[in-house]
Amino acid sequence: MGHNLLKGKKGIIFGALDENSIAWKTAERVHEEGGEFVLTNAPIAMRMGQIKVLAKKTASEIIPADATNEEDLQNLVSKSMELLGGKLDFVLHSIGMSVNVRKGRHYTDEKYDFTTKGWDVSALSFHKVMQTLYKADAMNEWGSIVALTYMAAQRTFPDYNDMADNKAYLESVARSFGYFFGKEKNVRVNTISQSPTPTTAGQGVKGFDGFIAYAEKMSPLGNATADDCANYTVSLFSDLTKKVTMQNLFHDGGFSNTGVSQEVIDVFSE
Fold first, then answer.
1. Element of type H or E holding 218
2. Running DSSP on this structure, what letter comes out for residue 207?
3. What pTM was estimated for this model as a whole?
């Protein structure tokens, strides 16, 4: 049930692939809360996914864009403002991909062309998106930009591979660009460090099922779902969080501050 938290607000949502994706759930919740948006994804992802179904459900337009391509981003931003009738209030960056993971390359045996591509898609694209918005003066005052990240940016999870490095870079970009966006335009920039979530991308990580079960046992509140993350993102897009910026916000049921849980102790005491 909506509360009109985003009534009159307009934005862009990157990365909705299918109904398992956090961007998809967020788009549904933003729509319920009265927000309007343009959906975007890379052309290849659009062919693989079901974004047209989401667009119809949320009465949204789709503008294809490669988030690593500056011309595509400039076109996306200008056309979005045209379609939505003015500047933007929110942007969700929900993009991540590791070629090394896809190709089964171990972290100690990276192919650096793959590494560079993954970094560009997963992390540098966030800077490119914000730089495009910044130069176009496309954000309304007190707007909110959010990117999705994971705690592997701070702690080692062996099978997360070079995505951990990408997420660390992403979080740094949020802080660095967040300073300038805040100081000069009163725009907020934050990252959400989400629980392991069974998205299409997440399930591509080796050992994912075992780890998600472990995280569930470790987290006092249990893992945060994609729906939970959508709700949290809506709160960051709303006017209720106007002074929250440059933060990496852990949304993981308490996992990030738990040393060990009784459930995990019990498993190893059997």
1. helix 208-218
2. T
3. 0.96
